[in-house]
Design a protein that fits this description.
The protein is mainly β and 82 residues long. The protein has a single domain, classed as TRAP-like (Immunoglobulin-like), CATH 2.60.40.50. It contains 1 helix and 7 strands, in the order βββββββα. The chain has one helix at 71-76, and strands at 6-11, 16-22, 29-35, 40-44, 49-55, 58-62, 65-68. Strands 4-1-6-7 form a 4-stranded antiparallel beta sheet, with no helix packed on it. A 3-stranded antiparallel beta sheet has the order 3-2-5, with no helix packed on it. The longest helix has 6 residues, at 71-76. The protein is globular. Bound molecules: tryptophan (TRP).
């Protein structure tokens, strides 16, 4: 399997976690990366990584589009995001 699809994560706060989950029968954490505010990680889905979990405030860009963790939720409810 060739890894082609990129995912870009930009941390909007310190301590954002980017967690890689395994491909295959069992889906487990295999890698955890901590990003500080302003840091960017460019990652791919590979033969080892089938899913990526992001904890903390971040902007995520994939081929599916762009989404912000937390930020979108707050604007949808009319609340002000910090
Ligand atoms: N060694 C991992 C792999 O090839 C590295 C990796 C790729 C990764 N994409 C990731 C780690 C996304 C965390 C998140 O699968």
């Amino acid at each position: 399997m060739s890894a082609t699809e990129f995912i870009i994560i930009k941390a909007l706060e310190n301590g954002v976690n980017v967690i890689g989950l395994t491909r295959g029968e069992a889906t487990k954490f295999h890698h955890s990366e901590k990003l500080d505010k302003g840091e960017i990680m460019v990652a791919q889905f590979t033969e080892h990584t089938s899913a990526i979990k992001i904890r903390g405030k971040a902007i995520v860009q994939t081929s599916c589009g762009q989404i912000d963790t937390l930020v979108d939720e707050l604007s949808a409810t009319g609340k002000k995001s910090e």
